[in-house]
Design goal:
Blueprint: E1 3-8, H1 12-27, E2 31-32, E3 41-46, H2 51-64, E4 75-80, H3 81-86, H4 88-93, E5 99-101, H5 109-125, E6 135-137, E7 159-163, E8 165-166, H6 177-181, E9 185-186, H7 189-201, E10 206-210, H8 230-239, E11 246-250, H9 259-267, E12 274-276, H10 284-289, H11 296-309, E13 314-321, H12 328-341, E14 345-350, H13 368-391, E15 397-405, E16 413-416, E17 422-425, E18 435-443, E19 447-452
Parallel strand pairs: 1-2, 1-3, 3-4, 4-5, 5-6, 7-10, 10-11, 12-13, 13-14, 17-19
Antiparallel strand pairs: 8-9, 15-16, 15-18, 16-17, 18-19
């Protein structure tokens, strides 16, 4: 059987989509290749959120066309967000690309690969060349949110991602996601509970629920019950699964982060004390121009309410530097808000104009050196805060779920603290999948090192 190499750019949702594609292909007998050099079929799952992510995927695909020199029948495809937004243009501009599959069609990838691979083999046998078959499948498909639900767990895998919804209806003016991922569509609670129950039967102890705007889960499909939003109903239902020990989710929006959800941080011990709450900017005029729907003051009050419900909560965020029209005062307001909230970490991005988004055509676009300068100032401040937050844990006991050998240091085992910090320990592989206390001895800024406290 042909070997497939899957490469993923972008967010956890993309990783999860790739996992589904890998599972569909292996179920049909395809083998997974460790590297592009061993592969007959190469599929790149793409990200469009910033131009850099698109350029990386395009560059990679360009480089890989050389692999065809020894294996002319090789099959190449783009999947996901950039496939969705560029569509047939990709097949037109890159002669070796055979397949383009959008974000609502991941479950069709295996069918398309079957068809294309058969053609490739026919071509090889007939010694025909130059005939070009390609498939571009980027239509909308109702119900596609229900198709990302199967897993291929590696041995002793104890954490898993679960996609609970697709799309986003918020239309932040900088963001391409609503056009690449479509409008909000959510899976039923029962189907998610079923998926997570099955995962726990296979040894999974922690799930991270994924969506572009997870706290708005189900708002178009399901009613509130007893003052609980559909998302809170889902969290409470998952909390009942006995073998599930930890629940995380990413990312919520400050809008719709209401009292019923905040309450969960006090009421549900399995809900981990970490909230990734995208801020984007600390300046009210910029937040307004971004269509974020909250003010800096409201954001601060929300973080205070979450901390009141769960004082040990870790807060992380996303910030965009150099949005069109951002003044030095706006930038200072962002730094000021960061100082007031004190984050555990953040992703900082330079604003990148995206096609067909309102912000891309705003007149006051900023030069790259200004974006760069502000980006590095925000990053310095966040790094200082992140270091302080980690150092606070030195000398303390922290509970971890041990996930397996560390990727960066195979002699050590890796786990995460409740606040999602990476903790490395010297331990035995029998610790994998266990939850236990670790005495934290030192911090390198972002990684904590410790010793199991009781085992
Ligand atoms: N709600 C989604 C957001 C997806 S995009 C989620 O977190 O799942 C992730 C982050 O990328 C955003 O929060 C934003 O900070 C950043 N981003 C989005 N569009 C951008 C752009 N045009 N330029 C720079 N950063 C951007
Ligand atoms: Fe993008 Fe805003 Fe939705 S950042 S994913 S449009 S909440």
């Amino acid at each position: 059987m042909p070997r497939v190499y899957l490469k993923t750019y972008g967010c956890q949702m993309n990783e999860r989509d790739t996992e589904q594609v890998a599972r569909d292909l292996t179920a049909r007998g395809y083998l997974l290749a460790e590297s592009e050099r061993d592969a007959d079929i190469i599929l790149i799952n793409t990200c469009s959120v910033r131009d850099m992510a698109e350029q990386k995927a395009l560059g990679k695909m360009g480089m890989m066309s050389r692999l065809r020199q020894n294996k002319p029948e090789m099959l190449f495809g783009f999947l996901g967000c950039m496939a969705q937004s560029r569509g047939a243009e990709l097949v037109r501009d890159m002669a070796h690309v055979d397949l383009v599959v959008g974000t609502q069609k991941f479950h069709r990838v295996a069918d398309h690969v079957d068809v294309l691979w058969k053609k490739k083999l026919q071509l090889r046998e007939n010694l025909m060349d130059d005939a070009r078959f390609s498939i571009v499948d980027v239509d909308e498909e109702p119900g596609s949110q229900d198709t990302i639900r199967d897993h291929t767990l590696s041995e002793r895998q104890v954490t898993a991602f679960v996609s609970i919804m697709q799309g986003c209806d918020m239309h932040c003016t900088f963001c391409i996601v609503p056009s690449t991922r479509g409008s909000e569509r959510s899976r039923p609670i029962a189907s998610i509970v079923d998926e997570v129950t099955k995962l726990t039967a296979q040894g999974v102890r922690e799930v991270t629920l994924l969506g572009q705007i997870v706290n708005q889960y189900g708002r178009h499909e399901f009613p509130k019950v007893g003052g609980h939003s559909p998302f809170v109903q889902l969290l409470r239902a998952l909390h009942e699964i006995p073998a599930l020990r930890r629940i995380r989710f990413t990312s919520p929006h400050p809008i719709g982060f209401r009292a019923d959800l905040i309450e969960c941080y006090a009421a549900l011990p399995k809900l981990m004390p970490h909230v990734h709450l995208p801020l984007q900017s600390g300046s009210d005029p910029i937040l307004r121009a971004m269509h974020r729907g909250y003010t800096a003051e409201k954001f601060i009050r929300l973080t205070e309410s979450i901390r009141a419900a769960r004082p040990d909560v870790a807060l992380t965020t996303d910030i965009i530097c150099g949005f069109p029209g951002e003044t030095e005062d706006d930038h200072a307001a962002t730094l000021d808000l960061i100082r007031r909230v004190h984050f555990d970490n953040a992703f900082i991005f330079k604003y990148s104009p995206r096609r067909d988004t309102p912000a891309a055509t705003m007149t006051a676009q900023l030069p790259d050196d200004v974006k760069e300068q502000r980006n590095s100032e925000v990053l310095d401040l966040i790094n200082t805060q992140a270091r302080e937050r980690s150092e606070r844990l030195v000398g303390q006991r922290v509970e971890i779920l041990c996930e397996g050998p560390s990727k960066t240091n195979p002699d050590r085992l890796m786990g995460r603290s409740p606040g999602n910090k990476i903790v490395l320990i010297e331990g035995d592989t029998r610790h994998i999948g266990e939850i236990f206390d670790v005495q934290i001895e030192r911090s390198t800024g972002f990684t904590l090192y410790g010793t199991p406290a009781v085992l």
